[in-house]
Amino acid sequence: MKRSHQPGRIWLGGLAALVAIGWSGAAGAQDGEKLAAQLCSSCHGVHGKSESPMFPRLDAQVPNYLEAQLKGFRNHARGETDAQSFMWGIASQLDDKTITSLADYYAHQTAPAGASGDPALLARGKEIFEHGLPSEGVPACASCHGQHAEGQDTFPRLAGQHEAYLERQITHFRSGARGNAPVMSAVAHTLNDEQAKAVATFLQAQ
Ligand code: HEC
Ligand code: HEC
């Protein structure tokens, strides 16, 4: 797909993909690898290696987190506008077994390679990631997301994720738009834009 940041156009592309493969989802459990190639790859990239910051990378993401998010889209608990526009309809067609199979497939892809970034932002971001901002009550991100931001259990991998996607999510946690994540909302509510950008730049580089 040609890179485009116009959600409307991409969404139409996603719908066209659904029609092209005759996907209604009602057929019961489906094979995650196949569905990922036929459908999810049109936005999230081949093997989850998305090239557009509009779409989060899914490669090597923690399986429990992937399952929780897909269920969160399905039951509308994850409700920011992009989640509604892009993921609610798709997730409504996925049963539990298909979700587990998709999560297992993406979790087993190779981890993304880090990008480069502005040295001053990287240093500032590293500081926040490893030590938090004690004077502002922001805990170290590493304490939940892992020493290398590789994620664990229900804490997502953040390493190698698109900077702009990460920043957008921090904004959603802060405003409450991504309302089903009380722990992250508490972490994000005192992070300002400059701090969010620095830590996101650092994470994309891991
Ligand atoms: C038409 C484009 C499109 C298609 C097709 C699509 N997605 Fe998404 N997906 C998105 C967008 C956009 C987001 C980000 C939503 C946001 O910013 O809140 C997203 C978010 C996600 C997330 C959350 C990731 C995270 O880091 O929190 C998961 C998991 C996901 N999609 C899985 C899938 C799976 C599995 C499929 C195939 C069954 C799929 N998506 C198909 C557009 C798409
Ligand atoms: C106390 C544990 C904890 C700490 C500390 C923490 N997080 Fe999180 N974070 C979470 C959890 C849990 C989630 C998953 C939320 C959900 O289920 O939607 C998450 C999700 C995220 C996401 C969304 C990822 C995605 O793929 O959509 C971002 C971005 C994020 N955290 C950034 C940070 C940053 C930056 C810091 C440090 C300033 C941080 N987190 C500190 C627990 C934590």
**Total beta strand runs:** 0
Structural class: mainly alpha
Report, as a whole number of angstroms, the end-to-end distance: 26 Å
Largest sheet: none
The secondary-structure element order is: HHHHHHHHHH
Domain unit count:
2
Q: CATH top level of the largest domain?
A: Mainly Alpha
Helix content: 40-55%
- Give the CATH architecture of the largest domain: Orthogonal Bundle
Protein name: Cytochrome c-552
Keywords: Electron transport, Heme, Iron, Metal-binding, Periplasm, Signal, Transport
Pfam family, one: Cytochrom_C
Organism: Ralstonia flaminis
What features would you describe in this structure?
With 206 residues, the chain is mostly helical. It folds into 2 domains: 8-107, Cytochrome Bc1 Complex, Chain D, domain 2; 119-204, Cytochrome Bc1 Complex, Chain D, domain 2. The chain has helices at 7-20, 32-44, 63-74, 81-91, 96-107, 119-131, 142-145, 163-175, 182-188, 193-204. Helix 3 packs antiparallel against helix 5 (96-107) and helix 8 (163-175) packs across helix 9. The longest helix has 14 residues, at 7-20. The relative contact order is 0.14. The model is unreliable at 1-9 (pLDDT under 50). The site of one heme C has 25 residues, from helix 1, helix 2, helix 3 and helix 4. One heme C is lined by residues 10-11, 14, 35, 39-40, 42-44, 54-56, 58, 66, 69-70, 80, 82-83, 86-87, 90, 102, 156, 168.
